[in-house]
Amino acid sequence: MQGAIFPGQAQWAETDAEERHRLMDAKVTIKEIARYAGVGTTTVSRVLNNHPYVSDEKRRRVEQAIAALHYRPSQTARHLRGGSSGLLGFLTDDVATTPYAVDIIRGAQDVAWAHHMVLLVADTGGNSRFAEAAVDVFRERAVEGIVYAAMYHRPVRLPAGLDGLPTVLANCFLEDRSAPSVVPDEVYGGYHATKAALDAGHRRIGFINLWEETEGVTPPFPAIYGRLRGYQQALEDHGQAYEDALVRFSNQTPRENYRHTRELMALPAPPTAIFCGNDKVAMNCFSALAELGLDVPGDVAVIGYDNIAHIAEGLLPQLTTMQLPHYEMGKWAVQYLIENQGRTMEPVQMALPCPLVARESV
Amino acid sequence: MQGAIFPGQAQWAETDAEERHRLMDAKVTIKEIARYAGVGTTTVSRVLNNHPYVSDEKRRRVEQAIAALHYRPSQTARHLRGGSSGLLGFLTDDVATTPYAVDIIRGAQDVAWAHHMVLLVADTGGNSRFAEAAVDVFRERAVEGIVYAAMYHRPVRLPAGLDGLPTVLANCFLEDRSAPSVVPDEVYGGYHATKAALDAGHRRIGFINLWEETEGVTPPFPAIYGRLRGYQQALEDHGQAYEDALVRFSNQTPRENYRHTRELMALPAPPTAIFCGNDKVAMNCFSALAELGLDVPGDVAVIGYDNIAHIAEGLLPQLTTMQLPHYEMGKWAVQYLIENQGRTMEPVQMALPCPLVARESV
DNA sequence: GCTGTTTATGGTAACGTTGCCAGATTCTTG
DNA sequence: CAAGAATCTGGCAACGTTACCATAAACAGC
Q1: In terms of Cα–Cα distance, which of B303, B296, B302 is closest to A291?
Q2: Given a cut of 70, is residue B230 above it in pLDDT?
Q3: Which residue of A33, A118, A128, A153 is 20 to 30 Å from A199, comparing CA positions?
Q4: Is the pLDDT at A11 greater than 70, yes or no?
Q5: Was domain B7-73 assigned CATH 1.10.260.40?
Q6: Strand D: which of residues 112-141 in chain A lie with Cβ below 7 A?
Q7: What residues does B210 pair with on adjacent strands?
């Protein structure tokens, strides 16, 4: 790069720098810094950790040596010596289900990073044997805590082997509430979605709620029951009577979502607004309304849930929907973990609001 | 657990076990195992690492001690001693853009895990200062390699400070191709999408390609040019003439996507199939066709790209689309990293096929 | 029965770092 | 100016692990 006196020299200097680089980048230790700067290792350590009692002269020399040799302290040695590992485990059952659930990771990471900690992530793919193996690995690496995240809001069971490891659940919870958790406030979401329709002047508000059965049993999904309660509460607060006919439960296949919309609109007194259990339902709802020649939001307002950007921003008109606090849950989980380091954690059950994202469909 | 001679002893043993557990889970070392089993630390180490020259008797005693004290070797100490860190860095510019890009992480993780390695992930949020800080942290933790992933296929520039660290790019590449990379084969995707329409008997095939400009300049996105080339090639192979009027470029806003569909269908000889640059385009294309009273796939076939499950499976009819090999890219990147440990890596430029996912829209 | 190999075992150093201690120098203060 | 405090400084041990070395016993072959 720099000007060279003559070719041979330039070439030599270049390979030398390269060689040195290769050798050094591998392992520059505090000892070499000490030797290079002509001080003891302790002094170097003191400079690194901003301890007092180092003369300006030596501090300068050490800093220079560090820069010259591209020294980086070994986190491994620090940890072994007695420091913290600075590692947090992020365990998730299945990332793929809800795409924007990645935001949980981002939220967790941002807080961790601010505390000079790093995230070790493992996706178990729903395999509990794998989950236990992951916990084992986390333990071997001395993580200081674990965030267990589910990709949709539901009760979970923790993998074995977590005893004694501070664990916070995000977007899920234990049936017995014995561990701290942070989840979306579904009642709040249902309430404000309905309120948005009411505030826009709508009085008959349909609700295509979610529904799911495994072997005839409906798991206690808060999304289903919470949003319904919020819906009812909002109606009540606005003096509107609750009407069974306006509430439907869809197993979320496109055809079912479509059918429920059609049946809702075939009512003697059809709704002028439809609150959909999620954005996919809203998408199919749009199709059905379009086929009926109805305009959104002119004839019927539609509100979704989840704020899946690809759908909500991609639809025509763009979808007004409820935001799941994924990012915030990730943040909260790690925050709580870090705040309570050392202490035993209270099993706080935190619910974060799902704010309305107003677009064009109301 | 074992039978007790008299109650007092049992009780003592119990609390003792609990107490011991609390204290030990914190840190059981190889030394304590050795003392408990009445052997030397070396012997314990030999058992742990399946080395020969340990009598069955002592091996049994050591294994028992390990189980009794819930011992786990410290990866930190192993690493310091000279072992590998077993850490891989996963650096990404922005996870949020394409939701299913998380599959890159899953793919990377699965391979890493199979090699007893763990993924350290950092999302830079597109901030290059943060990216460099992340590289620094990765270095301090002695990661053995880095996967740099972009969330849509494009040229990138690596953060500073990666010199000497084996790096593989996933879903992105360097302009000068100086580092190995793995990306989707866009030409292949464009070719097979078009071929699917041709094979279904279609002869006039519209193409709503993607387009993007920043300050009047279109970055060299392979998605745009590659798919177009594939489209052209497929037509040629089937003896169909390429027609400029059938190819459009959309900046991907819902309204533009809609407009392009309408204009395509307003042609003197409108297409009987439309290949969309991605699933969002296809979604808007569906709306436009529905409004025209056209049936999919009866009147017009539609093919998407990306296979965003929420859209592709949520539409009516379900969308036939091209799968981006996210999971496979993650796998390939880590595989390549691990295979070439120690060696200097050839800057292989790998392109993985985008297979057709046949659903109902063709 | 003597050499040479195979098997079994534990002690010790080293990995890179920092806390503790001890020694040396300078600065206060009565 | 003597005694104590504050400021510098480096040596050494220890964190938990494994490679290397040394020692010892058992076993083979002639």
Answers
A1: B296
A2: yes
A3: A153
A4: no
A5: yes
A6: none
A7: B250
Average pLDDT over residues B285-294: 92
Task: Give the relative orientation of helices B30-37 and B41-48 as an angle to the nearest 10 degrees.
Answer: 110
Backbone angles phi, psi at A292, to 5 degrees: -80, 0
pLDDT tens profile B9-61: 333 343 444 444 444 456 899 999 999 999 999 999 999 999 999 999 999 99
Q: What is the pTM of this model?
A: 0.89
CB contact under 8 A, B102 and A120: no
Task: Give the nucleotide nearest to A54 (CA→C1').
Answer: D8
Convert the pLDDT of each residue in B150-203 to its tens digit.
988 999 999 999 988 999 999 999 999 999 999 999 999 999 999 999 999 999
> Which overall architecture, per CATH, does domain A87-184+326-353 show?
3-Layer(aba) Sandwich (3.40)
How does DSSP classify residue A242?
Answer: P
Q: How far apart are CA B181 and CA B336, in angstroms?
A: 10
Give pLDDT tens digits for B68-100: 999 999 999 999 999 899 999 999 987 555 666
Name the nearest CA neighbour of A203 among A238, A233, A244, A245. Answer: A238
> Homologous superfamily of B186-322 in CATH?
Response regulator (3.40.50.2300)
Minimum-distance CB partner of B99 among A80, A287, A310 = A310
Does the CB of A79 fall within 7 Å of any strand C atom?
no
Phi-psi region of B90 (alpha: psi -120 to 50; beta: other; left: phi over 0): beta
A140-157 mean pLDDT: 94
Is CATH 3.20.20.140 what the domain over B87-185+328-353 is classified as, yes or no? Answer: no
Domain with CATH 3.40.50.2300 in chain B: 87-185+328-353, 186-322
Model pLDDT for residues A103-148, shown as the tens digit of each residue: 899 999 999 999 999 999 998 888 899 999 999 999 999 999 999 9
> Residue A49, Cα to own-chain centre: how many angstroms?
33
CA angle A54, A55, A59 (to 5 degrees): 75
Residues of chain B with CATH 1.10.260.40: 7-73
Could you give phi then psi for residue B190, rounded to 5 degrees?
A: -60, -40
Asked whether residue A23's C-beta has any atom of DNA/RNA strand C within 7 A, the reply is: no
CA B259, C1' C20: Å apart? Answer: 76
Average pLDDT over residues A75-99: 86
A12-73 has CATH 3.10.310.10 classification: no
Classify strands B205-210 and B247-250 as parallel, antiparallel or unpaired: parallel
Nearest-nucleotide field for B51 (CA, C1'): D18
Q: How far is A95 from chain B (nearest CA, A)?
A: 7
Task: Verify whether the Cβ–Cβ distance B72 to A163 is below 8 Å.
Answer: no
- The pLDDT value given to residue B17: 44
Q: For strand C, which nucleotides have at least one atom less than 7 Å from a protein CB?
A: 7-12, 14-20
Q: Is the dihedral of CA B218, B308, B350, B338 positive or negative?
A: positive
- Give the type of residue at B125: G
pLDDT the model gives residue B342: 82
Number of Cβ pairs < 8 A linking chain A and chain B:
151
> Both ends of chain B: CA-CA distance in Å?
65
Token pair, residue B63, equals 């294994």
Mean pLDDT calculated for residue range A153-161: 93
